[in-house]
């Protein structure tokens, strides 16, 4: 493994860890600060998640700032990241996500691991995950292929903060984050039995998003 690939993997691990720590930690804080108001809990959770995404992407984009296996796979499909490198980055994202969930639990005085009991299912939520992930892929790669690629942090942070509200699933849109959220039985948790359908729908959304990116932003020689 080259030094450059190692740096990318470390950036993905650290970035995904902080992202999940923000998602889970703000969810726990929201439960405690607004115990009788689920709408306010979601607002607090969404604002923290959107804000931390902006900060993390700005800080780590010069190295690697996908923090999402679907985004990394799409990068490979589009020819931006070699498959072997992508496999390492996805592994780093998965490990980082689980680490972030454990740290968030510990910060709030909970057991490091508490398996989530919040079952999330039904056709509406699964459609929501397709929409959320499709939109995320379109926003990420549409912005990167625009005349303002430096704006991707703000585009992604804004999209996710909004998608918490306009998708029925509250926009998980990330297999690493979805898996990590099984480790916290709190506001943002998801029961292990709900993970596979969510991840499958995220992959479907990612594939549809990649197709849209290719259709809307063809290579220069194909225009």
What is the fold-level CATH name, i.e. the topology? Glycerol uptake facilitator protein
Total number of helices: 8
Which class of secondary structure composition applies to the elements? mainly alpha
CATH superfamily: Glycerol uptake facilitator protein
Instruction: Tell me the number of structural domains.
Output: 1
Work out the strand percent: under 5%
Ends apart, CA distance between termini = 37 Å
- Helix content, binned percent: 55-70%
Average per-residue pLDDT, rounded, comes to 96
Low-confidence segments, ≥5 residues, pLDDT <50?
none
Global shape: globular
Summarize the helix and strand pattern as letters.
Answer: HHHHHHHH
Rg (C-alpha, Å): 17 Å
Which CATH architecture? Up-down Bundle
Query: What is the CATH domain class?
Result: Mainly Alpha
Number of strands: 0
Major beta sheet summary: none
Structure characterization notes:
Keywords: Membrane, Transmembrane, Transmembrane helix, Transport. It holds the Pfam family MIP. This is Aquaporin. The protein has helices at residues 3-33, 38-60, 69-77, 83-107, 123-144, 152-166, 175-180, 195-216. The protein has 223 residues and is mainly α. The termini are far apart. Helix content is 69%, strand content 0%. The chain is built from eight helices and no strands. The chain has one domain (3-222): Glycerol uptake facilitator protein (Up-down Bundle).
């Amino acid at each position: 493994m080259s030094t450059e690939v190692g740096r990318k993997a470390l950036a993905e691990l650290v970035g995904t860890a902080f992202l999940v720590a923000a998602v889970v930690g703000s969810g726990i804080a929201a439960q405690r600060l607004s115990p009788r108001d689920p709408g306010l809990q979601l607002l607090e959770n969404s604002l923290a998640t959107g804000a931390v995404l902006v900060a993390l992407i700005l800080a780590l984009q010069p190295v690697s700032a996908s923090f999402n296996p679907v985004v990394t796979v799409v990068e490979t499909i589009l020819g931006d990241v070699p498959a072997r490198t992508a496999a390492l980055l996805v592994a780093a994202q998965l490990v980082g996500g689980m680490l972030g969930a454990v740290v968030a639990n510990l910060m709030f005085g909970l057991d490091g691991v508490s398996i989530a009991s919040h079952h999330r299912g039904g056709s509406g939520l699964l459609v929501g995950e397709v929409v959320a992930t499709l939109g995320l892929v379109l926003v990420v790669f549409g912005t990167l292929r625009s005349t303002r690629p430096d704006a991707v942090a703000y585009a992604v942070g804004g999209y996710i903060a909004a998608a918490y509200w306009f998708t029925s699933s509250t926009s998980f849109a990330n297999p690493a984050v979805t898996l990590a959220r099984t480790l916290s039985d709190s506001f943002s948790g998801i029961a292990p039995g709900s993970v596979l359908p969510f991840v499958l729908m995220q992959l479907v959304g990612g594939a549809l998003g990649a197709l849209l990116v290719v259709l809307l932003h063809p290579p220069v020689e194909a225009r």
